[in-house]
Design goal:
single chain; about 650 residues; DNA Primase, Chain A; DNA primase DNAg catalytic core, N-terminal domain; Dna Topoisomerase Vi A Subunit, Chain: A, domain 2; 4 domains; five-stranded mixed sheet; four-stranded antiparallel sheet; 25 helices; 15 strands; about 50% helix; globular; TOPRIM_dom; primosome; DNA_primase_Znf_CHC2
Length: about 650
């Protein structure tokens, strides 16, 4: 559909840009002047703590002075929300209350029928939802909350209830003027042997299914009374073709566009559970084997989606079928990763037991498609020359199925490299370890790096801040326990500093350094510097933001970050030792390892988030001081 420049310009004039952007940001009240159309916020395109994102309503233009993202109404809807151009224009026209230009020729009858069917589906969704939240929906709500779904989640996804009363939907929608033929065409009701029209869904928790543009096209129903099938979808209709749809694609588009990743799970309740845990970039294949249309739709959301399969034989079989569908469609820049869940678990189970941290930790172990293919084929046997030859033949045939010639050539090369490594490993006269179940298995976690100079310097900065602000010794006393420092010299110096503070209660760096015993001077010289200083020269070298004289609140948050980073080092070291310590302990050991991995991943993510936030704040402090002419911008630890 084409739109004239005049029509697009009129839409921009009628809808303030701040109305579009304001759905994604919170305006900074100190910097913004709404009356003048001059608004500021933290940028929605990158992580920051101080507002550098500017919206000018008068010009209809936005710009971020941090990441340099800029544009107008439509570019925000396409670049931030992940809409295509036509949907962005339709969204803008809807906000402006302006109809889209009429096409030159009359609307075909099929289009009118589809519109009537959509109306019937929307009316059904409203009825199901009101029933769930009515007095008769308590048992269904209890079931949903027992699955871990909050009221907010149920409302976000439009959950509803089809009561176990035959004719409930037909009677209610008939009173609203919905014709019986529309109920049949929309898949909401069925007629058997010329009998009366009957509800298709009864006694089920209902979830609306949308097309990629966010329009309801069908429903999924989960039984509440034990009847089979457990899950029932709408039948194939002119609107609903489950082989071409991905559940939640319309909600996942924006988050996937921003994060660059997409998770594909098997069931829609799994997708709801993952999204409810905070992972918004998730879709579901509606319980079918992944089809070519679904693969291509997933690639419109992310270049390398991650397929998550249940940790059982059925899940592994589904993964293998997906591999066979994906291989011929591969092209430059488009592939998949594979994530096998623990044995007997689906994404919902994982979220229930470990929350988002467990899911994120496992997601880090997703394997590229090329490795998933190789492991699947190698697991069929590769321990004799004959089996190696058969493996090589199968891999050549798979690489030959790839339509993109360049990708096919690179897969041939990658398979040869892995075959060579496999043959070398088999030729070594070393004790072989049991292969175990290799198919799509998650690789072992890498061992952490040994202590480096950066962490030693971090220990020195932490000690320097204790001298700079003696009150921090008392404030962070509980965190400064045994084991926080790896360096024995630093640990000993910390003990002297804490003893000196307890005895003399110094209030300034000068008082504290003067009160330290003589045998602390060597370490003091390294951590702080020689002589009496308001800020030690060695500390200033390592932590140059101090030249900008940041406030105590900022320094306290830096101190918290540094102590968290030093604590994380010990956790990573413990995680590295767990596999060997837990070897042979079976499922309990694997569960312990996964739990520890999730905790370390969550701590790492929190530390990285805090570090980015403080770096943004430090950059803002530097800019402010540079504009005031008191300091020139420079890079620092933050």
């Amino acid at each position: 559909m084409r739109f004239s420049p005049e029509f697009l310009a009129s839409l921009r004039e009628q809808v303030p840009l701040s109305q579009i952007v304001g759905r994604a940001v919170s305006w900074d009240k100190r910097k913004s002047q709404p009356g003048r159309g001059d608004l500021w916020a933290c940028c929605p395109f990158h992580q920051e703590k101080t507002p550098s994102f500017h919206v000018d309503d008068r010009k209809g233009y936005y710009h971020c002075f941090g990441c340099h993202e800029s544009g107008d109404h439509i570019s925000f809807l396409t670049n931030h929300d992940g809409m295509d151009f036509v949907d962005a224009v339709k969204e803008l026209a809807n906000l402006a209350g302006v109809p889209l230009p009429e096409p030159d020729r009359p609307e075909p009858a099929a289009f009118r029928e589809r519109r009537s069917e959509r109306s019937a589906l929307e009316a059904a969704a409203a009825l199901y939802e009101s029933t769930l939240w009515g007095t008769g929906g308590r048992a269904a709500r209890d079931y949903a909350t027992g699955r871990g779904f909050s009221e907010e989640t149920l409302k976000t996804f439009g959950f509803g209830l089809a009561p176990n009363t035959q004719g409930f939907l037909v009677r209610h929608l008939a009173r609203e003027g919905v014709a019986e033929r529309e109920l049949e065409r929309a898949g909401l009701a069925v007629r058997r042997d010329g009998g009366p029209l009957r509800d298709r869904f009864r006694g089920r928790l209902m979830v609306p299914i949308h097309d990629p543009r966010g329009r309801i096209v069908g429903f999924g129903g989960r039984t509440l009374d034990g009847r089979d099938p457990k899950y029932l979808n709408s039948p194939e209709t002119p609107l609903f073709d489950k082989s071409t749809l991905l559940f939640n694609a319309h909600r996942a588009r924006g988050p996937a566009h921003r994060s660059g990743r997409l998770f594909v799970v098997e069931g829609y309740l799994d997708a709801v559970a993952v999204a409810a845990a905070g992972v918004d970039e998730v879709v579901a294949s509606l319980g079918t084997a992944l089809t070519e249309a679904q693969i291509k739709l997933a690639w419109t959301l992310a270049d390398e989606p991650i397929l998550c399969f249940d940790g059982d034989n059925a899940g592994r079989s589904a993964a293998h079928r997906a591999i066979d569908r994906i291989i011929p469609l591969l092209s430059g820049g488009h592939s998949f990763h594979f994530l096998a869940l623990p044995e007997g678990q689906d994404p919902d189970d994982l979220i229930q037991s470990g929350g988002r941290a467990a899911f994120d930790a496992l997601a880090e172990r997703a394997v590229p498609l090329v490795d998933a293919v190789f492991e699947r084929e190698a697991d069929k046997g590769a321990d004799t020359p004959e089996r190696l030859a058969a493996l090589e033949s199968r891999l050549d045939a798979i690489a030959g199925q790839i339509g993109d010639e360049r990708v096919s050539r690179l897969y041939h090369r990658a398979f040869r490299d892995r075959l060579f490594a496999l043959r070398r490993a088999q030729s070594r006269p070393a004790k072989r370890e049991e292969r175990g179940r290799a198919t799509l298995a998650a690789p072992p976690l890498p061992a952490p790096a040994t202590l480096d100079r950066a962490l030693l310097d971090l220990e020195r900065i932490t000690l320097g801040l204790l001298i700079l602000r003696p009150s921090f010794i008392e404030r962070f006393g509980e965190r400064l326990g045994e084991g926080i420092f790896v360096s024995d010299a630093h640990a000993g110096f910390l003990s002297l500093v804490m003893e000196t503070y307890a005895q003399a209660l110094p209030e300034t760096p000068e008082d504290l350094t003067e009160a330290l015993p003589p045998h602390a001077r060597m370490c003091l010289s390294e951590v702080w510097g020689e002589g009496r200083h308001a800020v030690g020269p060695r500390l200033l070298e390592r932590f140059s933001i101090l030249t900008c004289e940041p406030g105590d609140d900022f320094l306290a948050r830096c101190m918290t970050l540094f102590l968290n980073r030093l604590s994380l080092r010990a956790e990573v070291a413990e995680l590295a030792n767990e596999p060997s310590r837990l070897a042979g302990s079976g499922a309990d050991g694997e569960s312990r390892l996964l739990s520890l991995s999730a905790a370390v991943h969550a701590h790492t993510t929190a530390v990285q988030d805090a570090e980015r936030a403080l770096a943004d704040e430090a950059a803002a402090i530097r800019r402010t001081r540079a504009l005031a002419g008191t300091v020139s911008p420079s890079k620092s630890l933050l």
